[in-house]
Amino acid sequence: MSIAVQCRGVWKTFGTGPTAVTALQDINLAVEDGEFVTLVGSSGCGKSTLLRTIAGIESHNAGEIIVGGVPIRGPGVDRAMVFQNYSLYPWLTVVENIKFTRQLAAHTRDCTSSDVEVAAGRADALLGVMGLTSVAHSYPNQLSGGMQQRVAIARAMMSRPRILLMDEPFGALDAQTREVMHDLILHVSQLESCTVIFVTHDVEEAIYLGQRVVLMAPRPGRVDTVYPVPLTRERSQAMKHHSAFLELKVAILDRIRSTSGMKTDLELLQKLSRTAAQR
Ligand SMILES: Nc1ncnc2c1ncn2[C@@H]1O[C@H](COP(=O)(O)OP(=O)(O)O)[C@@H](O)[C@H]1O
Ligand SMILES: [Mg+2]
User: What residue spans in the chain does CATH classification 3.40.50.300 cover?
Assistant: First the structure.
């Protein structure tokens, strides 16, 4: 198996002097071709910074990020990103949104009619896979959040990226829609042989989707523990009740609590009631 993304000693600091924040400290991580890796950790531990750095939209101060054997120098068509807010163009229909990057390229480069046909065929295929065919000519504000996020994913897949970088993409969706989206993204990423790095703060989501869960810790942002997920690649919702799933969930939640430096609500409540009783 070859390596799709390799972070070697990656550092990222925001600001200078005493207020400087080390968002990434010596990150070493290799993601295999076709692997689905999830990143979890308490707020501010550098998940988004790591993803943006791999995307090339954030620079790093030291180390190397190697994609397809070559150190990255910025964004590239081999990597696509999906954010929590759907970031669609409200004045374009669903199919226009999906084709938009391709259309821009058509205006800036010489583009043959066969290129346009290939793009149209690709867009149609993605509409089908993502269950969007019936809303192809609707506008984003006519769609539910889940449907809008399907459009955003289809648009990201349009240029056949080798690597899909997803930053809490389902964070704004309700629980039932998220379950549907989980099975959809697993299906689509396998169909497209895509490597996925997926950020979430939801441990259950991280285990359900990931072949490995990478736990990051804050201040400074670093990789704390990498957990292989002891489940088959084919997932089903029933697996969430398997003992291996639940044990891993408890272990990761415990570790997040101890690395976050924050007391749990329960611990705080117990402390408060003890203090009140002593008065
Ligand atoms: N553009 C920025 N300028 C200054 N500090 C930033 C910037 N982006 C992120 N940070 C800081 O870097 C740390 C990691 O942030 P982030 O990657 O957003 O964490 P996460 O996604 O895990 O919540 C935080 O302390 C955050 O405040
Ligand atoms: Mg974030």
Answer: 3-78+161-278
